[in-house]
Structure formats: C-alpha cells, structure tokens
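Good morning N.,

You mentioned wanting to compare the apo and holo forms, so I went ahead and generated the holo version with NDP. This is what I fed in:
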Amino acid sequence: MTSIPDITLNNGQTIPQLGFGVFLIEPKDTATAVSRALKAGYRHIDTAEGYGNEAEVGEAIAKSGLDRGEVFVTSKLGNDAHEPDDARRAFDETLKALGTEYVDLFLIHWPLPDRYGGDFVQTWRVLEEVYRDGRARSIGVSNFQPRHLRRLHGEAEIIPAVNQIEVNPHLTQDELRGFCAEHQIAVEAWSPLGRGGVLAEPVIQSIANRAGKTPAQVVLRWHIQRGDIVFPKSVTPARIKENIDIFDFELPATDVEDITLLNKNERTGPDPDKFNGR
Ligand code: NDP
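and this is what came out, ligand included:
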C-alpha cells in the first residue's frame, strides 16, 4: 500500500501529509466516499461542522474495521458558534456526530472580521480548553492572515498547530506560507486542485506527460514537495485512487518552480478579510 509521509506538528503530534476532503460531498454520498478513501489507503479525513456530513464521516470510520487511532480526523468550528459557550456546545456536538471521544485536529474555520466584535481570541481560548482536556489532540486555525496569527501569538497561550488556507498553482500564497514557516505553523492547502481549475494549464499538462502521471497527480506532488498538507476531494472512485498514487515519483526542482510561476494570486473561494460566514 502507498506510504504517506507524516508531518510533525509544533506540539509533537503527527499528521499524514495527504488526506481526503469531504467539502461539498452530500451527506448521502459521504459514507461511501470515505469508505472508498479508507480502502484506498487514506488515513486522514478533513471535515467541518459546516459541511453537514460529520456523522457520515464517523459512520464510515466506524465501519472500516480500522482502530480509531489509525485515522486522523479534523473538524472545524461553525461560523455561528464563536461565542465561547456556543463553541463549547458546538465542539461537544462535533464529537457526538463523529461518534468519537476526540478529534485529532480542531480548527476555527474562518476569522470572520465583522462578527463577534472581531474577537476570535475568546473563541481560541475554548479551543485551548479542549486541547488541554485531551478531546482535541491538536488545535489550529483556517483562513487566518498574518495579522490574525500575530494577534494569537501576542494573546494566546497555545500557538496554532496549523493554518488551513487556500493554496493552488494559481494562488501560491508564498508570503503567508513563509510567515507560517517562521512561526512553526504547518500549512494545510485547501482546494489543492483549485477545484479542478488548474488542471488544464499547459505547463502542468506537459509536466504530466513527461512524468507519465495525470495533471492532478502532478499538482498534488507539487504541494507535497513544497511541504504542505493536502486533502483533495473526489466522489469518483478512479480519482480517489489516482490522488493517493503520488508517492512513487518526484518532480525536479525546475518543475516545482515552473508550476509556482503560474501564480496569479487568484482565489476560487472567499477572501478571509471580507468573508463573514454567511
Ligand atoms: P479540490 O481542489 O480538492 O477539488 C475538488 C474537485 O476536483 C472536485 O470537483 C473533483 O471532482 C475534482 N477532482 C478531484 N480529483 C480529481 C482528479 N484526479 N482529476 C480531475 N478532477 C479531480 O477542492 P475542494 O474545494 O474540495 O478542497 C479539498 C478540501 O479542502 C475540501 O474537501 C475541504 O476538506 C477543504 N476545504 C477547506 C476550506 C476551508 O475554508 N478551510 C474551504 C474549501 C475546502 P469529483 O468529486 O467529481 O471527482
């Protein structure tokens, strides 16, 4: 079976560098997709309260025959639950939906600039509580910009283990990634395939032809060689297998650079400085 490298987080916990994302998978299709991913060898699932499919993720893991400790599970706090008491309740509900006593990683999903008086630190303190009581083995943030991270550095006791941000060849995020590297925060690249939008790039197609791999495999390999954590989503059985079959080849440094040069600072998702979660 494909061997997926681990990344060691700033608290010593490890996370498989490649996982499986379930955003926009209908609840009715989620257990099947996650079961297929686990059979193909994925051991890391990325979900969120907002995806509405935590229960189905939990169902597939329970049915897989794998021990809970063999699968790394991430979930994220809903945008309507940033008030501390709501966040505590929401975290309990996430564990209940997943049918598990702990999550491996729990994230604040969005910083939400114009809600809760811009105070994500009070929310972060709830994540620190669930980290301390062991129900979240690691805690982190998503869609945080350097100024949000600086504020946590100044006011929080625990530094986020990860920042989950949009990264793909059209949005290479090298400044934010550099900031995270300097502060020992691992980067998780969401929508690593740009939702499919980067796969027709001639540079990527020609590297794929030369490597005897598909454009998606080349893009995922580019992320892995840059050191980011990825979890491509697919409901297509052949693609689920294709996306994990990326550990038997290496891109030359020049290919990695050529793909990085495709950057256009173009987002497919919301801008974290404007997005308020509804
Ligand atoms: P991805 O970049 O993973 O792209 C998914 C799309 O690409 C789907 O349409 C899928 O189609 C298609 N696809 C998958 N594999 C291939 C392939 N090998 N060849 C061609 N097309 C392919 O986008 P996502 O937005 O789903 O991002 C991945 C994960 O990141 C999410 O599931 C979620 O876990 C996380 N995320 C986090 C966010 C955050 O704010 N923190 C925001 C957005 C995503 P099909 O399914 O039909 O096969």
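Residues 21-24, 46, 109, 142-143, 164, 190-196, 199, 214, 216, 231-236, 239, 242-243, 269 surround NDP (CB under 6 Å).

Happy to go through it together on a call whenever suits you.

Best,
F.
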